[in-house]
Fold:
Amino acid sequence: MLKNDLILRAARGEDTERTPVWLMRQAGRILPEYRALRARLSGFKELVETPDLAAEVTIQPIDALDVDAAIIFSDILVVPEAMGLTYEMVEARGPLFPETIKTAHDVERMRIADPEEHLGYVLEAIRVTKRALNGRVPLIGFAGAPWTILAYMVEGHGSKTFSKARRMLYAEPELAHALLRKITATTIAYLKAQVEAGANIIQVFDSWAGILPPAHYQEFSTRYIAEICAAMPADIPVTVFAKGAFWAVEEFAQLPCRTIGLDWNQDPRAVRPLVSDKTLQGNLDPCALYGSPEQVRAATIAMLDRFGPQRHIANLGHGVYPDTNPDNVKVFINTVKEYSATLRA
Structure:
């Protein structure tokens, strides 16, 4: 039994006494507790792949920030690794794949991963976290959207253009679809296993949605996200967050998801009429947290006014930046709690 189920009720469209709040990337570098733990380890992957440590980091923002949900500490790139494509996390540079997908043979040798066999460390981290949380707040599980995972598997690293990955969509669309089908099958099995391990809500991150033209996004991303959403248990709310895909809102309205995440460039007043039966999540500009406490409070109130008092989960429009002052994060969280309660009075 959950002591705080605000985010679940908001996702289901039920009235809540205030707006629930959490932050993308809340478990991480903004917290000194995280930095202290991370400094003792060989690298990011050791932390992700050690269930007790991943659980500890997952719970840190619940203690330090008093947010309304935990999100399991992991990475979207565990999926390609589980499929057979190993990645490295290079300090100050980000992810790097020593090998990439170039040919049909490369796609053929990628397996549809077995969650317990190839991603068991994430599932165990979820189980450990659930026991430690003891019902304090819901736990969010997640995975990357298939297009975003393909982008890394083909490009091999982060990129401003992902031109190699996008070239495949034009030059070899069937090869792209073959890879996307394997990623989707792996992701569905993985997310179902997260739910079985204890995740209460699921988020699908399409981090590189915005670099595709709308027609390509519909063909190479939305259709696969729809498959993932449809495959989730009916009682598990699913959130879709597609950064930069402001033009896809009407497509998302047709998805079998409960919540749509908005980045900071989207105006919820324009989005709401298009998705009246779904909850919206977001969308304060992460850079707003660099302001003074008074500025953070004012920006947060303005955001809440744009969303209105119901069917909203407060968050940033992307992940919190690592050099953000945790005190300003607390101002954001406390303002959401206090001001949103007054909107319902």
Remarks:
- DSSP finds 16 helices and nine strands in the chain.
- The beta strands are 70-71, 88-90, 94-96, 139-144, 201-206, 238-242, 259-261, 279-284, 312-316.
- The CA atoms of residues 58 and 73 lie 5 Å apart.
- Residues 173-197 form the longest helix (25 residues).
